[in-house]
Amino acid sequence: MDPHRAEPPPHHAECLPLAPVARTGVWAVTAALVVPGLVLSVRPAATASPAVAGILLTLGAGAAFAARRLAAHETVLTRISLRAGFGPLSRAFPRHDLEVVGPSPARGWRRLYARQELLLRLRGADASRLIALPSNDPEALALALAPPSLERSPGGPYP
After folding, report:
1. How far apart are CA 15 and CA 102, in angstroms?
2. Phi and psi of 119, rounded to 5°?
3. Residue 62 DSSP symbol
4. pLDDT score of 42 more than 70
5. Which candidate, 98, 84, 96, 95, places its Cα nearest to that of 127?
6. What is the pLDDT of residues 45-99, one digit of tens each?
C-alpha cells in the first residue's frame, strides 16, 4: 500500500439475527396455518374446505415469506451512505445528513434484534425525525459515522 495515499473512511456492517424465541414463534404460526390447510385440501368431505384450505395456505405462505425476510436486520455503512433494513425492504440515508444522538436501550421491535440501539437525527428539513438502528455495538457504529478528522498525522497526508 502506498504510504502517501489516504486511508478510506471506516466502514461498518452488522447483520443482527432475529431473537430465537421470536423466530420459533413465527415458524410455529406458519406451521399452524399450513398444516390445517394441507389437511383440508386433501379432504373431499366438506364443500367449503377447498376455499378455507386456499386461504390457510396463502396465509401460511405469506407468514413463511415474512419469517424468511425478517430473519435478520442489516446495517451497512459505506463511504457515502447508511443502508439499514431487511434486504430489499431497507432504506438508504446520505451519510452527511446523519447526526449521532447516542446509544439507548432498544425499544419496540428493535428489541427482537439487539439490546441496544443507536439514535440518529436527520439534518435539514427532517431535523426532528429520529432514526433508531438496533446494534450490538452502538459505540462502534457511532465512531464509524463520525466525520473523518482533518488533523495531520505525523509523516502522513491529510485524510
Report:
1. 20
2. -95, 130
3. H
4. yes
5. 98
6. 667 778 888 999 999 999 999 888 888 999 988 888 899 998 778 898 888 888 8
Beta bridge partners of 72: 17
Listed residue (56, 22, 25) closest to 41, CA to CA: 56
Nearest alpha-carbon partner for 113 in 14, 31, 26: 14
Distances (CA, A) of 157 to 1, 8, 152, 154: 14, 13, 7, 8
DSSP code per residue over 91-113: EEEEGGGEEEEEEEE--GGGGGT
User: Going edge to edge, which strands form the sheet with 91-94?
Assistant: 12-17, 72-77, 81-85, 91-94
- Grid cell for residue 62: 405469506
pLDDT tens for residues 125-139? 767 788 999 999 999
Q: What integer best gives the mean pLDDT of the chain?
A: 83
CA angle 7, 8, 12 (to 5 degrees): 125
What are the grid coordinates assigned to 135, written together?
A: 446494534
CA–CA dist 104, 95 (Å, integer): 21
